[in-house]
Design goal:
5-stranded mixed beta barrel; Rossmann fold; alpha/beta; globular; 248 residues; binds S-adenosyl-L-homocysteine
Length: 248
Amino acid sequence: MTRTAIVSALAEEQFGLLELLQQPQKVSHAGRDFWQGQLHGQAVVLALSRIGKVAAATTATALIERFKVSRMVFTGVAGGMADGVHVGDVVVATEFLQHDLDASPIFPRYEVPLYGQARFRCDEALTALLFEASQAGLTGLARGPRGAWSDAAVHRGLIASGDRFVSGATESRALRLALQDGGHAVLAVEMEGAAVAQVCFDYGVPFAAVRTISDRADDQAHVDFPVFVKDVASRYAQAIVHRWLKSL
Ligand code: SAH
């Protein structure tokens, strides 16, 4: 049986999915709650990664070792970094890197020691379907009762992860420039994706990820983030994951 893990960082992001889960069964493991069940005809396990790279890596490992999932998708929110990546837009990840990993001068900056690479690629087929599902999901939300997302865009590209909530225009610009110097043009920043991507790489489990932009990682980020997470993150995840599962 193909079982799909759907991972979110925050409870607010997971809520919309949990609401629709059929035959829900809660299993507590490694200090976390995992929800097994059916979603749109697919066997799934819903999990909260918690915040940060280590917590996310533990969650991904448990999903693979204990729950035997054969593919994984991450849905969450992120700060927009590139120009033109606005609050309410969606970024589908093609690759991840850890912006706070620096073992230079022994290894090139951002490279994960002993892997010979800084970036970890997402699964191409799952990512293509996730991109389509995100476009269709946004169209669905724009037609919905509030119609608030009619000009939201779906982007595709590199996302950076690190153990830091980036919330300052100066910091965000410096981070973006440092990454650019290393040849990495990032669209968005968050705190878990690269860890999950690395665990999935280790186990050969196909991985895809989608992040809705909750803030611009600037001086307003700490204000924009909680409002967005509370009001809309859940509906985005529901709309996108629903279509993605149906297309698998
Ligand atoms: N104060 C919050 C903490 C949220 S941390 C709380 O109590 O729940 C931010 C979460 O959203 C992380 O899971 C991260 O992946 C994502 N995120 C959104 N905007 C971000 C930004 N500007 N920088 C880093 N992570 C961000």
